Amino acid sequence: MANISQELGVSEVLAAQSTLSRPAEEFVNDPSIEAQWAMKAFEHSEVYFNILCSVDPKVLRLTKYDDSIYTTFREDFPDLDVKLIDEDEMKSVEGKQKWRAFCEKFKETVEDYSFGTLLRANVDGDYSEKNSILTTRIQFLAIEIARNREGHNNEIRTRYKPTKKTGSK
Description:
Pfam families: PBDC1. This protein is mainly α. The chain has helices at residues 10-20, 31-54, 66-76, 87-90, 93-104, 137-149, 156-159; strands at residues 116-120, 132-136.
């Protein structure tokens, strides 16, 4: 997995972070802004995957709301197989309606609940162009909490090793 942040200097990363903390309504479809959002989503995925490679997923807590997120997710999506997410189904008209209702339940509790986040489609793979889906943060949290609690992320530590950042000591 390439590390986009290695190609940027400290000032560019800080500028991106400052820009990305502003409300989304302030932005238009500017390619440079979209690239910054993508970079932030990629960095989040890289950090999360490294945590999965290092920590037993069964004890991993992603938020202080994990119990509520998991319970609500399984009430709303009792039969969803979190091992393999079908992006077309998730983003179909019916899927969008169901997911939107779920997401809005966390609007006031989960910070940045609608922030764009990368999700692995297939739990057996790492983040790659073919295995990544752009979702909201709350969708990512719900699916990854379920994967962790239901034992689907247990093999990650044996299959992959955390990547090391270059240039840091």
